[in-house]
Amino acid sequence: MAIKLNPLNLAGLPDRLILMPGARIIFAELKRSGEKPRKIQEAFHNRLRKLGFRVEVVDSNEQIRRILEEVMA
Q1: pTM, two decimal places
Q2: What angle do CA 3, 6, 12 make, to 5 degrees?
Q3: In whole angstroms, how far apart are CA 5 and each of 11, 33, 34, 68, 70?
Q4: Along the 73 residues of the chain, how does pLDDT read in single tens digits?
Q5: 63 — phi, psi (to 5°)?
Q6: Under CATH, what is the fold of the domain 2-72?
Q7: Beta-sheet strands, E only, within 21-60
């Protein structure tokens, strides 16, 4: 299940919250091919990672497949 997040007053919050079987959670920042996160996004991603969450910056369908295969393995 991929839920689109509405940041309201949380600048830098990733675009999607992905809920996987086994209570696995991934935050995903969706970008165009080759595009990088802004500094405020990187800072928010790092805050989430320090809390133990997985954060992925995704810029291709292949990357999505790789992440899903890795999580489901």
Answers
A1: 0.89
A2: 105
A3: 11, 21, 22, 19, 23
A4: 999 998 888 899 999 999 999 999 999 999 999 999 999 999 999 999 999 999 999 999 999 899 888 888 8
A5: -65, -40
A6: Trna Endonuclease; Chain: A, domain 1 (3.40.1350)
A7: 24-30, 54-58
